[in-house]
Amino acid sequence: WTAARELAAALVGDSAGDWDVAGKLPADVLLRMGAEGVLCPQVPEAYGGLGMDSLSCGELTAEVGSRCSSLRSVMTSQGIAAWCVARLGDDAQRAEWLPRLTSGAIACVAFSEPDAGSDLSAMTTRIRPDGDNVVIEGEKVWTTAAVYADFILVFGRYADGAAAVIVPTHAPGVRIERRPDPLGCRAAGHADIRLDSVRLPSGSVLGGAGQPLGMLVTSALTYGRLSVAWGCVGILRACLTAACEHAATRRQFGKPLAGHQLVARHLAELLVDEQVSTLICRQASGHWDDRTPELVPSAVLAKHVAARRAADGAARATQVLASAGARDGSVVARAYRDAKLMEIIEGSNEICELILAEQAVTVWA
Ligand code: FAD
Fold it and tell me: Which atom of ligand 1 is nearest to the CA of 155?
């Protein structure tokens, strides 16, 4: 994964602050990252991907996340879409879509609706079979990367169950409206999507038929949670670097900030946050790579721990830099805003706690 890491480092450099302020990722960066397979690194080499295991993909995700959470968010969406094609699609769909996702096309993933946020069972988007076609009707909100996307993986109701369908963004009936001024990940291209009588060939439905909503959502979210968790490790690494460099060089009361015990505690806590998050992500990725049944709860645990630690850690780092970090474009201010969002997406803190409590009772009661 060294080449992918070096490519990400070279393409992002220290531009993420400018991209955040501009609210836009450069098209050439997205194209290059996509065309090199870096946005969905676990796609097998047979489909033009990098064939990484979850652990290597996680470390790469952390690297991208340490530089730019907006780009990492696009990477998470692309990775979910590719994973869903691999997991839910048939051979023909894998052969059609995976090479596109590893050669520059961008995909986003749309679950959330105005009245279906934490409770995805309230989803009302409908995918209706009509002869050799399906017709899609509905409204999606806050879809990351939709502004850049060539395809949307849309989840909706299908007969008595649910389905995931690949919708080209240029299909008649698709309308994409950018979400202005998000709190964080400002260059991630969030948008709301209207789907008005969008007619596509039936082959656009992954697996060709309806499946239980819970199974579809769990498949997609498990990849997404692990990716977000590794992204949070990246946020913590960026914060640790910024806070330690500043505390070692900035002097107050006759000595470096790091020499003041209350500041030193922030650095120690940040180190603990980064280490704990890394270890728990490695554990979850190990479950993915070993295909163990613990994967689903361990991805929830990793996301929950890493998101909370990233939000706390970014607040600490901002505290250490104080006025030196208190501006748009600074690494820690950006991390502070980006990390807060990680406590909301892919299962909020509260939803993760409910799942973990259920797991606790199953195992420990
Ligand atoms: P609500 O569900 O209304 O919840 C509000 C609050 O109540 C939260 O704190 C929640 O934890 C709490 N709550 C809700 N139910 C319970 C309960 N039973 N018990 C305890 N507490 C509860 N969606 C997509 O489909 N694709 C994307 O790419 C995508 N990207 C996003 C990017 C960003 C930056 C953001 C902010 C959102 C994104 N979303 C995306 C939407 C995201 O998944 C939802 O915001 C999230 O699921 C929470 O839903 P909600 O915002 O409607 O909050």
Answer: 25
pLDDT digits (tens, 9 = 90+) for 82-117: 999 999 999 999 999 999 999 999 999 999 999 999
Interval between CA 279 and ligand 1 midpoint (Å): 26
Tell me the residue length of the chain: 365
Radius of gyration of the chain (CA): 20
Report the relative pairing of strands 107-110 and 151-158 from DSSP bridges. parallel
Ligand 1 near 241 CB (within 6 A): no
**From 20, 186, 344, 346, mutation site for ligand 1 pocket: most ligand atoms within 8 A of C-beta:** 344
Indicate the Cα dihedral angle 165, 307, 23, 191, nearest 10°: 30
DSSP 105: -
Q: Whose CA is nearest to atom 38 of ligand 1?
A: 142
Minimum CA distance residue for ligand 1 atom 52? 117
Non-local (6+) Cβ contacts of 18 within 8 A are 329
Q: Whose CA is nearest to atom 18 of ligand 1?
A: 351
User: pLDDT per residue over 261-306, tens digit each?
Assistant: 999 999 999 999 999 999 999 999 999 999 999 999 999 999 999 9
Distance in angstroms (rounded) separating the CA atoms of residues 194 and 197: 10
Question: How does pLDDT run across 142-199, given as a tens digit for each residue?
Answer: 999 999 999 999 999 999 999 999 999 999 999 999 999 999 999 999 999 999 999 9
Give kind and range of the element (H or E) at residue 156.
strand 151-158
